[in-house]
Amino acid sequence: MIKGHCLCGACTFETDAAPRGPSMCHCGQCRRQSGGIWSSAYVARAALRISGPVKWFASSENARRGFCPECGSFLFWEALDEDTCSFALGAISNPTGLRLEKHIFTGDKGDYYDIADGLPQKE
Fold first, then answer.
1. Cα 106 from Cα 121, distance rounded (Å)
2. Cα–Cα distance, 39 to 46 (Å, whole number)
3. How many angstroms separate the Cα of 107 from the Cα of each of 59, 79, 115?
4. Can you give the pTM of this predicted structure?
5. What is the SS3 string spanning the chain?
6. How far is Cα 56 from Cα 40, in angstroms, rounded to an integer?
7. Residue 17 burial (CB < 10 Å; 0-12/13-18/19+)?
8. pLDDT above 90 coverage of the chain, percent
9. What is the CA radius of gyration of the chain?
10. Which PANTHER family does the UniProt entry name for this protein (predicted)?
11. End-to-end distance of the chain based on CA atoms, in angstroms?
12. Which of 4, 15, 68 is nearest to 42 (CA)?
């Protein structure tokens, strides 16, 4: 079981499903919202149980981002045309057993760091 929560603990999430696609996102939106690189994995939306307050922000016409309205923790990302939900790996409370698979939106990454771990990169 994967369990996680926001900084203040008001919003929690859990899933029994095996998370897929662990990645680091370097897009401008994730950098601005998280202050850096956002790491996430995803499960079927129906397999993710969310408790507590979540504020959803329509970050584009294709996706929305979920965060705690109390402390501001950026916890979720959903494409509107998919039935999955990505969750922040940094918010997980227990060991994940996951390994990163890739970096995404590397064409938009900040110029103040290098990606040097040898994982695949998708612009």
1. 6
2. 21
3. 19, 20, 12
4. 0.92
5. CEEEECCCCCCEEEECCCCEEEEEECCHHHHHHHCCCEEEEEEEHHHEEEECCCEEECCCCCEEEEECCCCCCEEEEEECCCCEEEEEHHHECCCCCCCCCEEECHHHCCCCCCCCCCCCEEC
6. 17
7. middle
8. 93
9. 14
10. CENP-V_GFA DOMAIN-CONTAINING PROTEIN-RELATED (PTHR33337:SF40), GFA DOMAIN-CONTAINING PROTEIN (PTHR33337)
11. 32
12. 15
**Does the domain formed by 2-122 have CATH 2.40.50.100?**
no
Amino acid at 105: F
> pLDDT by residue (tens digit) across 57-66?
999 999 999 9
Pairing type for strands 48-51 and 74-79 reads unpaired
Dig out the tokens for 17 from the structure: 């499903």
Q: Could you tell me the residue ranges of all domains in the chain?
A: 2-122
